[in-house]
Design brief:
Layout: E1 2-6, E2 10-13, H1 18-31, E3 34-37, H2 48-61, E4 69-75, H3 82-91, E5 94-99, H4 115-118, H5 120-128, E6 133-135, H6 149-164, E7 170-172, H7 178-186, E8 192-196, H8 199-202, H9 226-236, E9 243-245, H10 254-257, H11 272-282, H12 289-301, E10 309-318, E11 323-325, E12 328-330, E13 338-345
Parallel strand pairs: 2-3, 3-4, 4-5, 5-6, 6-7, 7-8, 8-9
Antiparallel strand pairs: 1-10, 10-13, 11-12
Helix pairs in contact: 3-5
GO biological process, one term: 'de novo' UMP biosynthetic process
Enzyme class: hydrolase
EC number: 3.5.2.3
């Protein structure tokens, strides 16, 4: 069995920098035409010149014949200015602004502390520039249970935000709950959308603990109950235009995952398309896979769809146990397991 689909894009991708960038970029570039590149480096990508420089670093890391295009983002802070948003749009390389509530995830300590008090002029300028806001949708209040932080964010931040600024385009990234699915579906189409990761389609919170603590299944937002996973599968395989592919592929060196205080993030770039195909096949919705992977994202961003194709072949292949690179090794999602769908360029 073989599928030929329009080359997908990854609308939520961490490429890091240095040796780690060199190690992981071939996996994304071989499967995806474009990627929305996350700005949470050390230091974060807060300005347009920094985004331009990071883009050049990424392009230099690509193979000579690669056609992969990095779509850059800015890291929203309490001090980001409306003028920076104008510069970003004029640059032609910055496509979105990322909201990390301060402390929500990896390298988010410089994130926003008061969205409504300090960022409204910036958000209003984003509307003028048709610049989407990409949201890590969790509150960081330590009094809120970690499994409830997405729902509380919707109720206390996101819903009030779109009520106040209904023309702002927002992507709720890596949705993990039935609450998020219902919220996105209730909003005006074309203004609010969501990306969905491979892990949140096939794993639930048991996957973190079965057979002992599984650090390579730990990500943020954390995996949720099985009822939430099923709701997300139902949403993405329904054919809705509101959901599209965003892997949130997040590489960390092995020792940073397997330690007393491990990093959050799953490296899935190598296996993402295989997993998405499995989910849609099991739902009897392979005919809807291409829209999710290749159409809904560019349509939301107002960008042309890719013209090249990629094949997905029903041919078992084994995921490597680890991926070595100059500074260490990375453990990919489903390391050592056999997957049924093999991506291959046309």
């Amino acid at each position: 069995m073989e599928l030929s689909i329009t080359r997908p894009d990854d609308w939520h991708l961490h490429l890091r920098d240095g040796d780690l960038l060199q190690a992981v970029i071939p996996h994304s570039a071989s499967h995806f035409g474009r990627g929305i590149i996350m700005p949470n480096l050390k230091p974060p990508i807060k300005t347009t010149p920094a985004a331009v420089a990071y883009r050049e670093t990424i392009l230099k890391a690509l193979s000579v014949n690669s056609e992969f295009t990095p779509l850059m983002t800015l890291y929203l802070t309490d001090t980001t200015s409306p003028e920076e948003i104008k510069l970003a749009r004029e640059s032609g390389v910055v496509y979105a602004v990322k909201l990390y509530p301060a402390g929500a995830t990896t390298n988010s300590q410089d994130g926003v502390t008061d969205l409504f008090g300090k960022c409204l002029p910036v958000l209003e300028e984003m509307i003028k520039q048709n610049m989407p806001l990409l949201v890590h949708g969790e509150v960081t209040d330590t009094e809120v249970d970690i499994f409830d932080r997405e729902k509380v964010f919707i109720d206390t931040v996101l819903r009030p935000l779109i009520e106040r600024l209904p023309q702002l385009k927002v992507v709720m990234e890596h949705v993990t709950t039935e609450d998020a699915v219902r919220f996105v579906e209730s909003c005006k189409e074309g203004f609010i959308a969501a990306t969905v990761t491979p892990q949140h389609l096939v794993l639930n919170r048991n996957s973190i603990f079965q057979g002992g603590l599984q650090p390579h299944n730990y990500c943020l937002p954390v995996l949720k109950r099985e009822t939430h996973r099923r709701a997300i599968v139902s949403a993405v395989t329904s054919g809705s235009k509101r959901f599209f592919l965003g892997t949130d592929s997040a590489p960390h060196e092995r020792w940073k995952k397997e330690c007393s205080c491990g990093c959050a993030g799953i490296y899935n770039a190598l296996v993402a398309l295989s997993i998405y195909a499995k989910v849609f096949e099991e739902a009897g919705a392979l005919d809807k896979l291409e829209a999710f992977t290749s159409f809904n994202g560019p349509d939301f961003y107002g960008l042309p769809r890719n013209t090249s194709k990629i094949k997905l072949i029903k041919s078992p292949w084994k995921v490597p146990e680890s991926l070595s690179y100059a500074s260490g090794e990375i453990i990919p999602m489903f390391a050592g397991e056999t997957l049924e769908w093999l991506p291959a360029s046309v």
